[in-house]
Write a structure and sequence with these properties.
Blueprint (H helix, E strand, L loop, with lengths): L5 H23 L8 H11 L6 H9 L2 H11 L14 H8 L1 H19 L6 H25 L4 H10 L2 H10 L3 H4 L2 H22 L4 H9 L12 H14 L4 H7 L4 H6 L6 H18 L3
Helix pairs in contact: 1-11, 2-3, 2-6, 3-5, 4-5, 4-6, 4-8, 7-8, 7-13, 7-16, 8-12, 9-11, 11-12, 12-13
Length: about 290
């Protein structure tokens, strides 16, 4: 076999095998994800202060997508939601749960993740990078929601934080296939094909509100779609566009007027420098809450 063809053929074979593995995992569930226990420990620290503000708790819990999703899920559970009134934003979920329930949820979450963490030592850098991207995305989504006044900034922040959970799941699974992970082109092709499917499965299993799941499913194409749709998806789409050009205001100034999502939100003519500055400020506050 030609030595120049062999690596490509091997990558294709590995990719096909991994895709079959992903398909099988969707059918057997439940799906579990690794996370970052340091965040849960930070929650315990701030909750030890009876005078801590709800704002601080929301920022810290919200910095970890899987913990945030679990808190919202618990707030919507039968035990904590006898009226069956579903909440989608983290602030309302924290207020509904109370600090004692949050402490218990954080301890349970941290212990589960600590038991699993060693298995993913080889991909720690990738997991950390994914987490930082999610926090940046969430900060920008919060700013977009506040500027457009179309929805709660907390709901937008939560949705953006959990939007990448499918990618996290795929990363944990591919850690057992280092040859595929080393092939960026093949790996990203699999991520593009599968991450939304896993995001839906995971978020549904956490009992996340359907409007959040729908926004996560469709936001990646909303900048190009002219037809009306859910405002939350437009917020996420616009935030993704801003993050893509966060270091190029001139490019963002060209892109915003062309974005159907930005047009629907009334942000097509927004000053790019101001939006980028607001997003950076929000990100700084979120990182400061985490003690980073």
């Amino acid at each position: 076999m030609d030595s120049k063809v062999a690596p490509a053929a091997q990558a294709e074979s590995a990719g096909s095998a991994f895709a079959r593995e992903l398909a099988a995992s969707l059918s057997i569930g439940p799906i579990e994800l690794p996370s970052y226990p340091d965040v849960a420990l930070r929650v315990q620290q701030v909750l030890a202060d009876d005078a801590v503000s709800t704002e601080m708790v929301v920022r810290i819990v919200g910095a970890e997508p899987m913990l945030a999703a679990r808190v919202v899920s618990l707030a919507n559970s039968a035990a904590m939601n006898p009226s069956s009134h579903q909440v989608t934003d983290l602030r309302t979920a924290v207020s509904r749960m109370g600090f004692d329930s949050l402490r218990a949820a954080a301890v349970s979450f941290a212990m589960a993740q600590l038991r699993a963490r060693a298995e993913y030592a080889d991909i720690e850098q990738q997991l950390t990078r994914n987490w930082r991207d999610s926090v940046s995305f969430a900060s920008t989504a919060s700013v977009v929601a506040r500027r457009s006044q179309r929805m709660s900034p907390d709901t937008a922040l939560f949705a953006a934080l959990v939007a990448g959970v499918g990618k996290v799941y795929i990363l944990t699974r591919v850690s057992r296939h280092p040859q595929l992970l080393a092939d960026a082109f093949a790996y990203q092709a699999i991520v593009r094909e599968w991450h939304i499917k896993f995001a839906r499965s995971l978020l549904a299993s956490w009992h996340v509100a359907e409007d959040v799941i729908e926004a996560v499913e469709v936001y990646e194409r909303r900048n190009q779609e002219a037809r009306p749709g859910p405002p939350l998806a437009d917020v996420l789409a616009c935030a993704a566009l801003i993050n893509r050009h966060h270091d190029a205001p001139a490019r963002l100034a060209e892109s915003l007027p062309l974005s159907h999502a930005a047009q629907r939100l009334g942000l097509a003519k927004a000053a790019p420098d101001a939006i980028i500055a607001d997003a950076a400020s929000e990100l700084s506050k979120l990182n400061a809450a985490l003690g980073r």
